[in-house]
Write a structure and sequence with these properties.
By secondary structure, the chain is of the alpha+beta class. The chain contains three helices and six strands. Helix 2 packs antiparallel against helix 3.
Length: 187
């Protein structure tokens, strides 16, 4: 027979700390085989629990991160929307002044009035409503007092709004711009 036809015998290579699977576990450890197998099972189950726990924690962290980013994006969108709507309020004020002081016979008055109405419609669609101020009690959350005058005779309220210098607006429960008002104060 030649060397080629002979079966080569595989020589196992063992690294330090490894156990040869062909040798008897009981011989190396001095313990019965069942006890060492149970120890291996406990170690494997602890590792499996650790990986599963770690995966669950990572998933929860990712969900929290996603929710936090979504909330941040919504807050930024709301802040930009508020900023834009406040800018429109200045245009609405200018159109309102033009309508009040322009002669109704002027042909431009109708087109300016139509533009004003369209702007108010747009604001209402976005949830913006004007704050009613005249003949209501003064509320520092809704109104900004620019002047105080003595109360009229028979005024029931201690702080009643007589005039509105600049209209105020709110979006839902949030005040976009307080109304600038003149308040009548009872002595």
């Amino acid at each position: 027979m030649t060397d080629v036809t002979k079966k080569r015998r595989r020589i196992p290579v063992h690294r330090p700390g490894e156990v040869d699977p062909e040798t008897d576990v009981a011989e190396e450890t001095g313990q019965p085989e069942e006890a060492s197998t149970a120890a291996v099972d406990v170690t494997q189950s602890e590792e499996a629990v650790d990986w599963r726990d770690m995966a669950l924690r990572l998933r929860a962290d990712m969900d929290n991160y996603r929710r936090r980013q979504q909330r941040l994006a919504e807050e930024q969108i709301a802040a930009e929307k508020k900023r834009l709507l406040i800018g429109f309020l200045g245009v609405v004020d200018n159109l309102d002044r033009i309508i009040r002081y322009l002669d109704p016979a002027n042909p431009h008055q109708q087109s300016i009035k139509a533009t004003y109405d369209d702007m108010m419609k747009l604001l209402r669609l976005e949830g913006v409503e004007p704050i009613d101020a005249v003949n209501t009690p003064f509320d520092p959350l809704l109104h900004d007092a620019v002047a105080m005058v003595p109360a009229r005779e028979g005024q029931a309220e201690s702080m009643l709004i007589l005039e509105e210098e600049q209209k105020g607006y709110r979006m839902g429960d949030q005040v976009l711009r307080p109304a600038r008002v003149i308040v009548a104060k009872r002595a």
